[in-house]
Amino acid sequence: MPEPIRKIVVAGGGTAGWMTAAWFARLLHGTPVEIVLVESDEIGIVGVGEATTPYLHVFNQVMGIDEDDFLRFTRGTFKFGIEFVNWGGAGRAYHHPFGAPGRDYGPLPFHSVWLRHALANPSDTLEAYNLQSLAARHGKFMRPSGANSPLADLTYAFHFDASLYARYLRQISEAAGVQRIEGRIEQVRLTADGSIEGLSLNEGRSVDGDIFIDCTGFRSLLLGEALGVGFEDWSHWLPCDRAWAVPTARDGAPLPFTRSTARASGWQWRIPLQHRDGNGLVFASAFMNEAQAVDQLVANLEGPPLADPRLIRFRTGRRKKVWEKNCVAIGLAAGFLEPLESTAIMLIQKAIAYLQYLFPDKGFSDADRDLYNADMGREYEVVRDFLILHYRAGERRDSDFWRYCASMSIPDSLQNRIDLFQSRGRIQEIPGEQFRIQSWLAVMWGQGLRPAAPDPLAMTLDEAALNKWLAEMRDVIARCCDYMPSHSDFIAQHCAANLTV
Ligand code: FAD
């Protein structure tokens, strides 16, 4: 008879390790299941991962996290989306906002009627129909309020200091009963059937358990190294494999959005926090060497650096399985997709949610593992396709890197979406998928893809009535934006950190 699961061992205490430990500590509170987390201060955490998606609200709500308290602690700000500068072509910019633009026109979805209008009126912008976009542009922020107006549907995420976030999660986890062990894992001991029996730590200590969650970061010490699960490399589609990261001082108000600026062989991020900006250059080493990249990053900073730039090397792809035997990998140990759409923390949450759904009580079932691997595989693939779209769909051809992106082959799943859009402006939406129609629309349109013709049913609408309807929508959104306080006033009033601490 298989033994009951009585001890969960989380290996690694970055964002992935602490989010997993906190979640299961809450879920299993009052049961005989014990949760132990092993981490090494000497090794440390990757220390980036500062921009999120609105999915983090789910985690905060389940954990009972007070949002103002969390932002104060992590010196966080609010995020309405991402501004993409120079991606579609030099000198062009667009916003990928959270939340849906506009409303549907009776039975016709917003995007099909708007595309009809926009194809005939190229100066119209999608931003005018999305309150998040407009508020971001004007540096405004508030939480949803009221009813029957776009203010009620405001959708936002956060920026925060990654090291402070790990500390915050640690506090929550330890308060919920997670036992933290400081130590370096030196060996992963296996049983005769190849499952993990325990971890041997420095100073002769060991930690045994029933299920092991590998959150050891890029190294994937348990799943990758000890269990030998291979890696599926996606760098032919996403060739960036390095990042330089550096914080800078900021003079002025933090903007309520992440900025991503395309560069010659990659892109640069800027993430505004209360006390500093996070910056980094993600680049492809096949097209630009590390020295050139750091020079380019430093030359394009908007404030004085607060530390020396730090190099992070990575490989894009995912483990062929993320659950093998009695080991589940979560976070960087499971795979990596560059942070262009801030999706890694969201994928950590997905991994936790699927594991909760399939959490074992006694032994392990192949059916559970297979479902978990299939579900997580799909999650990574959808994000992968969405990221490739940014590189593939633009009009940049001004460097070897961009010429490579323009000519590389892409997954059939993405090609099908592009074909569908370029024909009649149709957008595939798969139930449960993180990126909804509005995200695909914002990026496809923003990158410069255009349908050959509008949806034929949208062409049956009366043009004057449609123009009036769209003008009214723009007007309501503009008035809502005027009403909103500034992002910095909102922070000052609700969640300003004590920066003298
Ligand atoms: P890590 O933070 O690396 O933690 C690994 C843990 O394992 C550490 O505690 C370490 O001490 C421990 N460990 C390792 N080996 C041992 C050992 N032998 N013994 C004991 N302990 C060990 N994500 C987003 O959502 N938004 C972003 O904006 C974003 N930006 C990013 C930018 C870059 C350049 C990169 C590389 C990633 C970014 N990410 C982003 C991803 C994000 O940083 C990670 O998903 C997140 O931090 C989780 O990391 P982790 O916990 O898996 O790994």
TrEMBL record:
Active site: 79
Lineage: Bacteria, Pseudomonadati, Pseudomonadota, Alphaproteobacteria, Caulobacterales
Record-listed 7-chloro-L-tryptophan binding positions: 79
Key words of the record: FAD, Flavoprotein, Nucleotide-binding
Residues where L-tryptophan binds: 341
Single annotated GO MF: nucleotide binding
SUPFAM superfamilies (alphabetical): FAD/NAD(P)-binding domain (SSF51905)
Species of provenance: Asticcacaulis taihuensis
Residues noted as binding FAD in the record, renumbered to the chain: 13-16, 332, 345
Protein name stated in the entry: Tryptophan halogenase
